[in-house]
Write a structure and sequence with these properties.
The protein is an all-alpha fold and 188 residues long. The chain has one domain. Helix content is 94%, strand content 0%. It contains 3 helices and no strands.
Length: 188
């Protein structure tokens, strides 16, 4: 094995270690943010439950309980939707970070592979151009596949975001209508 091959192997191992460290750092940051989000949501849920229970216990009759239930429903649904949106945003952010790392890694791989094919072509014996053409074709096909995968990931992320917004609007309207109906019923 010649010295340049050892240097290339060492450089490749170093690059792979850096990619792994970047991916692990992204994952750790994501878990840390999700934990903080869950702690905040749990604390808020507990505090709201205590306050709601106190309000319900202070109700004088069934009509007041029904009215309080309808008044307390909308903020809880809004908070649930806000929490869901925060989790979605966190996951989307992590997906973008991982995609960015993978795109950078793939770009470096493609560049190195193209360079290696060109070097091999320059010193290739007769008939080596067929091998080089095959390798270039394979690199072109893998680049196309990677670009397609990246485009599909972006489309799926955009669709999920649109669905999340639509679900939020629908749930909010449904809860508002249910609360209004309950308020009318308790007023009778």
């Amino acid at each position: 094995m010649s010295n340049p091959n050892i240097e290339q192997l060492t450089a490749a191992q170093k690059a792979n270690a850096e990619v792994m460290m970047a991916l692990l750092q992204s994952a750790f940051n994501g878990v840390e943010r999700l934990t903080a989000l869950n702690m905040a949501a749990t604390r808020e849920l507990f505090n709201n439950s205590v306050a709601s229970s106190q309000q319900l216990l202070s109700a004088k009759d069934a009509k007041d309980v029904a009215k309080l239930n309808s008044e307390l429903a909308q903020p809880n649904v809004d908070k649930l939707m806000e929490y869901s949106r925060s989790v979605y945003d966190l996951v989307a952010s992590m997906q973008k970070e991982v995609t960015s790392v993978m795109e950078t890694q793939y770009s470096a791989f493609t560049k190195n592979a193209s360079s290696a094919v060109e070097k091999a072509t320059a010193g290739a014996p007769v008939g080596g151009d067929v091998f080089a053409a095959t390798m270039k074709s394979m690199l072109g096909a893998s680049t196309k596949a990677f670009d397609t995968m990246t485009s599909m990931t972006k489309q799926l992320t955009d669709m999920a975001e649109t669905n999340m917004q639509a679900a939020g609007k629908t749930v909010s309207k449904t809860v508002s209508a249910t609360a209004a109906a309950a308020a009318k019923k308790s007023a009778k």
